[in-house]
């Protein structure tokens, strides 16, 4: 390895090791300084007073609403119940029953004190949770909006809405190259959080008419919140590029793991685990009516702990009412038969893609092409449409059965497309060992943990330099598009960053208790 690469790698490794505030700029408090509450008036007028968004979905909003409830003796019990219900979701199956019974006895019996003000007849956990929110979204939510806790929420929102420029970040090594530009490791100066910054060169986007594709990727990502899909944290522009700041995935992509470490392919437990997490990711996308269309090993990335996330949503599409789209997109070797034959299609193509992925992880080569073989486009199409894939002895009976059900050429007969969607896939015998509820909650230990001292991507000098295009002139129409892209922080991801990096805890100090303290802006 060349010296330049070693220096770049060790700088990155040092940066991502920094926890406990180590990666923060010495000016971080100033960077996250609250505006005076009088400066939040416009925001107070315009912000949508939606309980679910303000007190459940937004992480800082949820924390402040809980602090408000804790400050009120008559509401403290509701918060303990909410905590208990949250904990219930993280319990393994064996502990669940007893824990559930205790919650019911303590909080949900009609006779118990906390529940007495809520309409009687509630006995189950889900109904309990629903009633809880119904109650809190009434009077308590109104009172919250008059409290100093809501003032503080508005202050945090103002900090969240600060304009984002390249100066918000420190830049580390180049991680990879995409169709419109490079992907770099970066770190937020104020919090120390590491991210991957995907840059789209403005001239490239314009020359290849990638505007709608770029905007599509950004808009789909900002609307998602799944542990199995990369999160968008910021979208901003520089003089030359549009930038998407994404969850940093330090463990490399599945392509790297299938081919660059030992003999091609992965052991069965890893295949099962990655396939199960990808399945959950696809289900989250499909629930939002999004078809992914680009499933292949290089688009599935590993994080520090060995969990995967789906990345690169450039080809993803939101289905309209008709539930169908057309368009021959994707990567040839992984395209479903209905895509190749120009039919209308929907979510079915992603279940085909999952079949290809499971096949490739197991066999160490994709289903319709040997490694190193480069068939012509028409040959490849013919194989996908007509050829029966082959299974060698690396395939156990269950994985073979699963692959052949997913790689069914007729979409209506394919597993995942029979009417119960992903549930059909999850209940296949290959996944018998997987507890999907625990997996969804992030509580299943991955079978492989990436080495924190290793950088799982090509050496910097081996990543081809991004060429520049000449003769493209940017004008006002381009600026209109850039301003649609350049929306700054994405609320949920940003708020999670502030909490996770300890900034919320250190900055969210109130004055003398209960009062709207004059030093709210300290
Ligand atoms: P494109 O849409 O142009 O193919 P990608 O989103 O696939 O671009 O990114 C290109 C490369 O950058 C990937 O193959 C990967 O090596 C790297 N990369 C992308 N996103 C991340 C991320 N979140 N974390 C780490 N590396 C990433
Ligand atoms: Mg890609
Ligand atoms: Mg892409």
From TrEMBL:
Keywords: ATP-binding, Kinase, Nucleotide-binding, Phosphoprotein, Serine/threonine-protein kinase, Transferase
Record-linked InterPro entries: AGC-kinase_C, GPCR_kinase, Kinase-like_dom_sf, Prot_kinase_dom, Protein_kinase_ATP_BS, RGS, RGS_sf, RGS_subdomain_2
Gene Ontology CC: cytoplasm
Record-linked Pfam families: Pkinase, RGS
Species the sequence originates in: Lates calcarifer (Barramundi)
Residues reported in the UniProt entry to bind ATP: 198
Catalytic residues as annotated in Swiss-Prot or TrEMBL: 294
Domain named AGC-kinase C-terminal: residues: 432-497
Protein name: G protein-coupled receptor kinase
Similarity remark: Belongs to the protein kinase superfamily. AGC Ser/Thr protein kinase family. GPRK subfamily.
Reactions listed under catalytic activity: [G-protein-coupled receptor] + ATP = [G-protein-coupled receptor]-phosphate + ADP + H(+)
SUPFAM superfamilies attached to this UniProt entry: Protein kinase-like (PK-like), Regulator of G-protein signaling, RGS
């Amino acid at each position: 390895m060349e010296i330049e690469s070693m220096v770049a790698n060790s700088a990155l490794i040092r940066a991502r090791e920094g926890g406990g505030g180590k990666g923060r700029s010495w000016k971080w408090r100033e960077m996250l300084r609250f505006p005076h509450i009088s400066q939040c008036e416009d925001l107070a007028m315009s912000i949508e007073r939606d309980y679910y968004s303000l007190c459940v979905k937004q992480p800082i909003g949820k924390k402040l609403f809980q602090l408000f409830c804790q400050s009120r003796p008559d509401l403290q019990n509701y918060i303990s119940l909410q905590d208990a219900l949250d904990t219930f979701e993280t319990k393994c199956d064996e502990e669940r029953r007893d824990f559930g019974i205790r919650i019911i006895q303590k909080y949900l019996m009609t006779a118990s004190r906390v529940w007495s003000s809520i309409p009687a007849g509630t006995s189950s956990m889900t109904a309990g949770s629903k009633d809880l929110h119904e109650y809190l979204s009434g009077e308590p939510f109104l009172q919250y909006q008059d409290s100093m806790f809501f003032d503080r929420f508005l202050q945090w929102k103002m900090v969240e809405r600060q304009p984002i420029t390249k100066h918000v970040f420190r830049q580390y090594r180049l991680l990879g190259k995409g169709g419109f530009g490079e992907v770099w490791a970066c770190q937020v100066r104020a919090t120390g959080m590491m991210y991957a910054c995907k840059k789209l060169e403005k001239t490239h986007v314009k020359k290849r008419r990638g505007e709608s594709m770029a905007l599509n990727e950004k808009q789909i990502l900002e609307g998602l919140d799944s542990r199995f899909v990369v999160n968008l944290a910021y979208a901003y522009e520089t003089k030359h590029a549009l930038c998407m700041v994404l969850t940093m995935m330090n463990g490399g992509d599945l392509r790297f793991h299938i081919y660059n470490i030992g003999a091609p392919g992965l052991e069965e437990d890893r295949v099962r685990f990655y396939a199960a997490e990808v399945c959950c990711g696809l289900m989250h996308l499909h629930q939002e009516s999004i078809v992914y269309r680009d499933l292949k090993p290089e688009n599935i990335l590993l994080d520090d702990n060995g969990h995967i996330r789906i990345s690169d949503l450039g080809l993803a599409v939101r289905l309209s009412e008709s539930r169908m789209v057309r368009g021959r997109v994707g990567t040839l070797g992984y395209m479903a038969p209905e895509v190749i034959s120009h039919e209308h299609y929907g979510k079915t193509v992603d279940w085909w893609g999952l079949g290809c992925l499971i096949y490739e992880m197991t066999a160490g080569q994709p289903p319709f092409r040997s490694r190193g073989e480069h068939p012509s486009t028409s040959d490849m199409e013919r194989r996908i449409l007509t050829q029966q894939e082959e299974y060698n002895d690396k395939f156990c009976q269950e994985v073979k059965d699963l692959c052949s059900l997913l790689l069914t050429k007729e979409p209506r007969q394919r597993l995942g497309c029979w009417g119960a969607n992903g549930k059909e896939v999850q209940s296949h015998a290959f996944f018998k060992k997987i507890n999907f509820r625990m997996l969804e909650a992030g509580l299943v230990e991955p079978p492989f943990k990436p080495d924190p001292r290793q950088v799982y991507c090509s050496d910097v000098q081996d990543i081809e330099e991004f060429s520049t295009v000449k003769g493209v002139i940017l004008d006002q129409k381009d600026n209109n598009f850039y301003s649609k892209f350049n929306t700054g922080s994405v609320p949920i991801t940003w708020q999670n960053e502030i909490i996770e990096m300890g900034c919320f805890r250190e900055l969210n100090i109130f004055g003398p208790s209960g009062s709207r303290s004059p030093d709210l802006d300290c």
